[in-house]
Design brief:
The structure is a homodimer of 187-residue chains.
Chain A lengths: L7 E2 L2 E2 H13 L5 E12 L2 E11 L2 E13 L14 H23 L4 E13 L16 E10 L2 H13 L2 H8 L3 E7 L1
Antiparallel strand pairs in A: 1-2, 3-4, 4-5, 6-7
Protein backbone atom coordinates (compact mmCIF):
# COMPACT_ATOMS: atom_id res chain seq x y z
CA UNK A 1 0.00 0.00 0.00
CA UNK A 2 2.96 2.31 0.50
CA UNK A 3 4.43 3.88 -2.63
CA UNK A 4 7.20 6.41 -2.54
CA UNK A 5 8.27 6.23 -6.18
CA UNK A 6 8.16 9.53 -7.98
CA UNK A 7 5.86 11.81 -6.02
CA UNK A 8 3.45 9.12 -4.84
CA UNK A 9 2.86 8.47 -1.16
CA UNK A 10 -0.15 6.57 0.18
CA UNK A 11 -1.43 6.51 -3.40
CA UNK A 12 -1.52 10.32 -3.36
CA UNK A 13 0.31 12.25 -6.08
CA UNK A 14 1.83 14.78 -3.72
CA UNK A 15 3.31 16.93 -6.50
CA UNK A 16 -0.15 17.36 -8.03
CA UNK A 17 -1.65 17.91 -4.57
CA UNK A 18 0.81 20.71 -3.80
CA UNK A 19 0.35 22.20 -7.30
CA UNK A 20 -3.43 22.20 -6.73
CA UNK A 21 -3.00 23.96 -3.39
CA UNK A 22 -0.78 26.55 -5.06
CA UNK A 23 -3.31 27.11 -7.86
CA UNK A 24 -6.11 27.75 -5.35
CA UNK A 25 -3.85 30.02 -3.33
CA UNK A 26 -3.18 32.06 -6.51
CA UNK A 27 -6.85 32.14 -7.54
CA UNK A 28 -9.31 31.35 -4.72
CA UNK A 29 -12.20 31.19 -7.20
CA UNK A 30 -10.90 27.80 -8.34
CA UNK A 31 -12.14 26.50 -4.99
CA UNK A 32 -15.81 27.35 -5.65
CA UNK A 33 -17.58 24.03 -6.18
CA UNK A 34 -21.17 22.87 -6.51
CA UNK A 35 -22.05 19.20 -6.18
CA UNK A 36 -25.37 17.84 -7.44
CA UNK A 37 -27.64 14.84 -7.22
CA UNK A 38 -30.90 13.92 -8.89
CA UNK A 39 -33.29 11.53 -7.18
CA UNK A 40 -36.28 9.64 -8.50
CA UNK A 41 -38.89 7.83 -6.43
CA UNK A 42 -39.28 4.17 -7.44
CA UNK A 43 -41.99 2.77 -5.12
CA UNK A 44 -42.69 2.95 -1.41
CA UNK A 45 -39.53 3.95 0.45
CA UNK A 46 -37.35 2.86 -2.48
CA UNK A 47 -35.73 5.64 -4.51
CA UNK A 48 -32.57 6.17 -6.51
CA UNK A 49 -30.08 9.02 -6.82
CA UNK A 50 -27.71 9.73 -9.68
CA UNK A 51 -24.49 11.69 -9.27
CA UNK A 52 -22.63 12.83 -12.36
CA UNK A 53 -22.13 16.52 -13.08
CA UNK A 54 -20.63 19.13 -10.81
CA UNK A 55 -19.14 22.58 -11.03
CA UNK A 56 -15.59 23.28 -9.93
CA UNK A 57 -12.32 24.88 -10.91
CA UNK A 58 -14.34 27.49 -12.83
CA UNK A 59 -15.98 25.01 -15.19
CA UNK A 60 -18.75 22.45 -15.53
CA UNK A 61 -17.35 18.99 -15.00
CA UNK A 62 -18.53 15.39 -14.85
CA UNK A 63 -17.32 12.34 -13.00
CA UNK A 64 -15.60 9.75 -15.20
CA UNK A 65 -18.81 7.74 -14.89
CA UNK A 66 -22.36 8.27 -13.69
CA UNK A 67 -22.84 6.95 -10.16
CA UNK A 68 -26.25 5.65 -9.09
CA UNK A 69 -27.38 4.62 -5.60
CA UNK A 70 -30.55 3.09 -4.25
CA UNK A 71 -31.98 3.83 -0.84
CA UNK A 72 -34.81 2.02 0.88
CA UNK A 73 -36.03 0.94 4.29
CA UNK A 74 -35.50 -2.59 5.58
CA UNK A 75 -38.51 -4.86 6.08
CA UNK A 76 -38.65 -4.02 9.79
CA UNK A 77 -39.26 -0.41 8.72
CA UNK A 78 -41.89 -1.38 6.13
CA UNK A 79 -39.57 -1.18 3.12
CA UNK A 80 -38.23 -3.56 0.50
CA UNK A 81 -34.56 -3.40 1.64
CA UNK A 82 -33.38 -2.63 -1.90
CA UNK A 83 -30.75 -0.25 -0.55
CA UNK A 84 -29.47 1.10 2.75
CA UNK A 85 -31.52 3.61 4.66
CA UNK A 86 -30.78 7.28 3.93
CA UNK A 87 -29.21 7.76 7.38
CA UNK A 88 -26.69 4.97 6.73
CA UNK A 89 -25.27 7.00 3.84
CA UNK A 90 -24.35 9.66 6.41
CA UNK A 91 -22.17 7.07 8.16
CA UNK A 92 -20.46 6.18 4.88
CA UNK A 93 -19.97 9.89 4.14
CA UNK A 94 -18.25 10.71 7.44
CA UNK A 95 -15.95 7.66 7.30
CA UNK A 96 -15.08 8.34 3.65
CA UNK A 97 -14.38 12.05 4.21
CA UNK A 98 -12.15 11.51 7.23
CA UNK A 99 -10.30 8.65 5.53
CA UNK A 100 -9.64 10.60 2.32
CA UNK A 101 -8.35 13.46 4.46
CA UNK A 102 -6.11 11.10 6.41
CA UNK A 103 -4.52 9.79 3.19
CA UNK A 104 -3.96 13.29 1.80
CA UNK A 105 -2.67 14.85 4.99
CA UNK A 106 -0.40 11.91 5.77
CA UNK A 107 1.04 12.11 2.24
CA UNK A 108 1.56 15.86 2.52
CA UNK A 109 3.40 15.36 5.82
CA UNK A 110 5.54 12.49 4.54
CA UNK A 111 3.78 9.97 6.80
CA UNK A 112 3.31 6.47 5.32
CA UNK A 113 0.09 4.55 5.91
CA UNK A 114 -0.20 0.77 5.89
CA UNK A 115 -3.92 0.54 6.67
CA UNK A 116 -6.82 2.73 7.74
CA UNK A 117 -10.00 1.06 8.92
CA UNK A 118 -12.95 2.55 10.68
CA UNK A 119 -16.25 1.51 12.14
CA UNK A 120 -19.06 4.00 12.46
CA UNK A 121 -22.11 3.74 14.70
CA UNK A 122 -25.09 6.04 14.70
CA UNK A 123 -27.66 5.97 17.50
CA UNK A 124 -31.17 6.99 16.55
CA UNK A 125 -34.48 6.75 18.37
CA UNK A 126 -37.22 6.32 15.78
CA UNK A 127 -39.82 7.63 18.21
CA UNK A 128 -38.74 10.97 16.72
CA UNK A 129 -39.43 10.40 13.03
CA UNK A 130 -42.47 8.25 13.82
CA UNK A 131 -43.99 11.22 15.61
CA UNK A 132 -44.37 9.44 18.96
CA UNK A 133 -42.58 12.09 20.99
CA UNK A 134 -41.72 15.73 20.46
CA UNK A 135 -38.87 15.32 22.93
CA UNK A 136 -37.01 12.87 20.70
CA UNK A 137 -35.09 14.40 17.83
CA UNK A 138 -35.56 13.03 14.33
CA UNK A 139 -31.89 12.48 13.58
CA UNK A 140 -28.95 10.70 15.15
CA UNK A 141 -28.42 11.33 18.83
CA UNK A 142 -24.75 10.53 18.40
CA UNK A 143 -22.34 9.22 15.80
CA UNK A 144 -19.10 7.48 16.81
CA UNK A 145 -16.20 6.86 14.44
CA UNK A 146 -13.51 4.46 15.61
CA UNK A 147 -10.29 4.45 13.58
CA UNK A 148 -7.59 1.79 13.52
CA UNK A 149 -4.50 3.01 11.65
CA UNK A 150 -1.23 1.26 10.99
CA UNK A 151 1.82 2.90 9.47
CA UNK A 152 4.54 5.26 10.63
CA UNK A 153 4.92 6.66 14.14
CA UNK A 154 1.62 6.33 16.06
CA UNK A 155 1.86 9.87 17.40
CA UNK A 156 2.11 11.29 13.87
CA UNK A 157 -0.79 9.09 12.75
CA UNK A 158 -2.99 10.40 15.57
CA UNK A 159 -2.13 13.98 14.60
CA UNK A 160 -3.04 13.25 10.98
CA UNK A 161 -6.48 12.05 12.10
CA UNK A 162 -6.94 15.18 14.17
CA UNK A 163 -6.03 17.41 11.23
CA UNK A 164 -8.37 15.46 8.95
CA UNK A 165 -11.19 16.06 11.44
CA UNK A 166 -10.31 19.75 11.58
CA UNK A 167 -10.59 20.05 7.78
CA UNK A 168 -13.39 17.60 7.02
CA UNK A 169 -16.34 18.92 5.02
CA UNK A 170 -18.65 16.13 6.18
CA UNK A 171 -17.59 16.45 9.84
CA UNK A 172 -18.37 20.17 9.65
CA UNK A 173 -21.83 19.63 8.16
CA UNK A 174 -22.73 16.75 10.50
CA UNK A 175 -21.62 18.54 13.66
CA UNK A 176 -22.49 22.15 12.84
CA UNK A 177 -25.32 21.74 10.37
CA UNK A 178 -25.86 23.83 7.24
CA UNK A 179 -28.87 25.56 5.69
CA UNK A 180 -31.09 23.25 3.61
CA UNK A 181 -33.69 25.00 1.43
CA UNK A 182 -36.54 22.97 -0.03
CA UNK A 183 -38.72 24.07 -2.93
CA UNK A 184 -41.77 22.23 -4.23
CA UNK A 185 -43.44 22.11 -7.64
CA UNK A 186 -46.57 20.06 -6.93
CA UNK A 187 -49.04 19.33 -9.68
CA UNK B 1 -46.95 3.73 -9.87
CA UNK B 2 -50.22 4.01 -7.96
CA UNK B 3 -51.50 0.86 -6.27
CA UNK B 4 -54.57 0.82 -4.12
CA UNK B 5 -55.26 -2.93 -4.09
CA UNK B 6 -55.40 -4.42 -0.63
CA UNK B 7 -53.58 -2.04 1.70
CA UNK B 8 -51.02 -0.83 -0.80
CA UNK B 9 -50.75 2.84 -1.75
CA UNK B 10 -47.70 4.37 -3.43
CA UNK B 11 -46.04 0.97 -2.98
CA UNK B 12 -46.42 1.35 0.79
CA UNK B 13 -48.16 -1.41 2.76
CA UNK B 14 -50.25 0.96 4.87
CA UNK B 15 -51.64 -1.80 7.11
CA UNK B 16 -48.11 -2.84 8.08
CA UNK B 17 -47.11 0.81 8.43
CA UNK B 18 -49.95 1.52 10.86
CA UNK B 19 -49.29 -1.75 12.74
CA UNK B 20 -45.64 -0.74 13.12
CA UNK B 21 -46.65 2.66 14.47
CA UNK B 22 -48.99 0.94 16.94
CA UNK B 23 -46.24 -1.43 18.06
CA UNK B 24 -43.83 1.45 18.76
CA UNK B 25 -46.59 3.35 20.55
CA UNK B 26 -47.13 0.32 22.80
CA UNK B 27 -43.42 -0.24 23.39
CA UNK B 28 -41.22 2.78 22.62
CA UNK B 29 -38.05 0.69 23.06
CA UNK B 30 -38.78 -0.89 19.66
CA UNK B 31 -37.77 2.46 18.19
CA UNK B 32 -34.20 2.33 19.50
CA UNK B 33 -31.97 1.76 16.46
CA UNK B 34 -28.25 1.76 15.77
CA UNK B 35 -26.97 1.89 12.20
CA UNK B 36 -23.38 0.94 11.35
CA UNK B 37 -20.79 1.19 8.64
CA UNK B 38 -17.27 -0.14 8.26
CA UNK B 39 -14.82 1.65 6.01
CA UNK B 40 -11.48 0.55 4.61
CA UNK B 41 -8.92 2.76 2.91
CA UNK B 42 -7.97 1.51 -0.55
CA UNK B 43 -5.41 4.02 -1.87
CA UNK B 44 -5.14 7.80 -1.99
CA UNK B 45 -8.58 9.32 -1.54
CA UNK B 46 -10.28 6.06 -2.57
CA UNK B 47 -11.98 4.09 0.19
CA UNK B 48 -14.93 1.76 0.55
CA UNK B 49 -17.72 1.39 3.12
CA UNK B 50 -19.80 -1.67 3.85
CA UNK B 51 -23.28 -1.50 5.37
CA UNK B 52 -24.90 -4.69 6.59
CA UNK B 53 -25.76 -5.17 10.26
CA UNK B 54 -27.82 -2.87 12.43
CA UNK B 55 -29.71 -2.98 15.72
CA UNK B 56 -33.40 -2.26 15.89
CA UNK B 57 -36.74 -3.49 17.19
CA UNK B 58 -34.85 -4.93 20.21
CA UNK B 59 -32.65 -7.26 18.17
CA UNK B 60 -29.56 -7.49 15.99
CA UNK B 61 -30.58 -7.43 12.35
CA UNK B 62 -28.97 -7.45 8.91
CA UNK B 63 -29.99 -6.04 5.58
CA UNK B 64 -31.12 -8.64 3.03
CA UNK B 65 -27.74 -8.11 1.40
CA UNK B 66 -24.44 -6.44 2.20
CA UNK B 67 -24.21 -2.99 0.59
CA UNK B 68 -20.82 -1.63 -0.42
CA UNK B 69 -19.97 1.87 -1.66
CA UNK B 70 -16.80 3.47 -2.93
CA UNK B 71 -15.87 7.09 -2.38
CA UNK B 72 -13.06 8.99 -4.03
CA UNK B 73 -12.10 12.43 -5.29
CA UNK B 74 -12.33 13.33 -8.99
CA UNK B 75 -9.14 14.01 -10.93
CA UNK B 76 -9.52 17.77 -10.45
CA UNK B 77 -9.26 17.10 -6.71
CA UNK B 78 -6.25 14.79 -7.12
CA UNK B 79 -8.22 11.53 -6.88
CA UNK B 80 -8.95 8.59 -9.14
CA UNK B 81 -12.71 9.24 -9.49
CA UNK B 82 -13.57 5.66 -8.50
CA UNK B 83 -16.61 6.88 -6.60
CA UNK B 84 -18.42 10.09 -5.73
CA UNK B 85 -16.93 12.47 -3.20
CA UNK B 86 -18.03 11.96 0.41
CA UNK B 87 -20.02 15.22 0.35
CA UNK B 88 -22.08 14.01 -2.62
CA UNK B 89 -23.40 11.15 -0.50
CA UNK B 90 -24.93 13.81 1.78
CA UNK B 91 -26.96 15.04 -1.21
CA UNK B 92 -28.17 11.51 -1.95
CA UNK B 93 -29.03 11.04 1.73
CA UNK B 94 -31.20 14.16 2.01
CA UNK B 95 -33.06 13.47 -1.25
CA UNK B 96 -33.61 9.82 -0.31
CA UNK B 97 -34.81 10.59 3.22
CA UNK B 98 -37.28 13.25 2.15
CA UNK B 99 -38.56 11.11 -0.73
CA UNK B 100 -39.09 8.01 1.44
CA UNK B 101 -40.95 10.20 3.90
CA UNK B 102 -43.09 11.66 1.12
CA UNK B 103 -44.13 8.18 -0.04
CA UNK B 104 -44.95 7.01 3.50
CA UNK B 105 -46.79 10.14 4.59
CA UNK B 106 -48.75 10.37 1.34
CA UNK B 107 -49.80 6.73 1.72
CA UNK B 108 -50.81 7.25 5.34
CA UNK B 109 -52.93 10.25 4.30
CA UNK B 110 -54.52 8.49 1.35
CA UNK B 111 -52.72 10.71 -1.16
CA UNK B 112 -51.68 9.02 -4.41
CA UNK B 113 -48.33 9.83 -6.00
CA UNK B 114 -47.56 9.53 -9.69
CA UNK B 115 -43.98 10.73 -9.58
CA UNK B 116 -41.50 12.33 -7.21
CA UNK B 117 -38.29 13.74 -8.59
CA UNK B 118 -35.77 16.00 -6.98
CA UNK B 119 -32.55 17.76 -7.77
CA UNK B 120 -30.12 18.65 -5.03
CA UNK B 121 -27.35 21.22 -5.16
CA UNK B 122 -24.70 21.79 -2.54
CA UNK B 123 -22.47 24.88 -2.60
CA UNK B 124 -19.04 24.45 -1.10
CA UNK B 125 -15.95 26.65 -1.14
CA UNK B 126 -12.90 24.40 -0.99
CA UNK B 127 -10.79 27.24 0.35
CA UNK B 128 -12.09 25.91 3.68
CA UNK B 129 -10.92 22.30 3.57
CA UNK B 130 -7.76 23.27 1.69
CA UNK B 131 -6.81 25.48 4.63
CA UNK B 132 -6.61 28.69 2.58
CA UNK B 133 -8.92 30.71 4.80
CA UNK B 134 -10.16 30.38 8.35
CA UNK B 135 -13.21 32.44 7.38
CA UNK B 136 -14.48 29.79 4.96
CA UNK B 137 -16.24 26.84 6.54
CA UNK B 138 -15.20 23.31 5.59
CA UNK B 139 -18.68 22.08 4.72
CA UNK B 140 -21.52 23.10 2.46
CA UNK B 141 -22.54 26.74 2.66
CA UNK B 142 -26.00 25.79 1.49
CA UNK B 143 -27.93 22.80 0.17
CA UNK B 144 -31.02 23.25 -2.02
CA UNK B 145 -33.53 20.49 -2.72
CA UNK B 146 -36.02 21.09 -5.53
CA UNK B 147 -38.95 18.68 -5.70
CA UNK B 148 -41.27 18.07 -8.61
CA UNK B 149 -44.26 15.94 -7.57
CA UNK B 150 -47.19 14.73 -9.60
CA UNK B 151 -50.24 12.98 -8.20
CA UNK B 152 -53.33 14.01 -6.27
CA UNK B 153 -54.29 17.55 -5.27
CA UNK B 154 -51.20 19.83 -5.42
CA UNK B 155 -52.02 21.42 -2.07
CA UNK B 156 -52.04 18.02 -0.37
CA UNK B 157 -48.80 17.09 -2.09
CA UNK B 158 -47.11 20.25 -0.85
CA UNK B 159 -48.29 19.51 2.70
CA UNK B 160 -46.90 15.98 2.43
CA UNK B 161 -43.48 17.42 1.53
CA UNK B 162 -43.66 19.79 4.48
CA UNK B 163 -44.50 16.95 6.88
CA UNK B 164 -41.69 14.83 5.44
CA UNK B 165 -39.27 17.69 6.11
CA UNK B 166 -40.61 18.05 9.64
CA UNK B 167 -39.95 14.34 10.35
CA UNK B 168 -36.80 13.73 8.32
CA UNK B 169 -33.83 12.23 10.15
CA UNK B 170 -31.34 13.43 7.53
CA UNK B 171 -32.83 16.94 7.37
CA UNK B 172 -32.51 17.17 11.16
CA UNK B 173 -28.85 16.08 11.16
CA UNK B 174 -27.87 18.26 8.20
CA UNK B 175 -29.55 21.40 9.52
CA UNK B 176 -29.06 21.01 13.27
CA UNK B 177 -25.94 18.87 13.44
CA UNK B 178 -25.31 16.03 15.87
CA UNK B 179 -22.38 15.03 18.08
CA UNK B 180 -19.68 13.04 16.27
CA UNK B 181 -17.09 11.37 18.51
CA UNK B 182 -13.85 10.10 16.96
CA UNK B 183 -11.49 7.60 18.59
CA UNK B 184 -8.11 6.54 17.24
CA UNK B 185 -6.07 3.37 17.67
CA UNK B 186 -2.81 4.27 15.91
CA UNK B 187 0.07 1.81 15.78
Amino acid sequence: MTMTDNNMRNGVDTATLFATLDAVRQNPEIGTFQFRATNRWVSGTHNRSTLHGFYGAMQEMTHAQEFSFDADHPAVLVGGDRGPTPVEFLLHAIAACLTAGIANIAAARGVNLDSVESTVEGDIDLNGILGMSDEVRNGYQQIRVNFVLRGDDPEKLAKVVEQSRARSAVFDVLTNGCPVAISVDAG
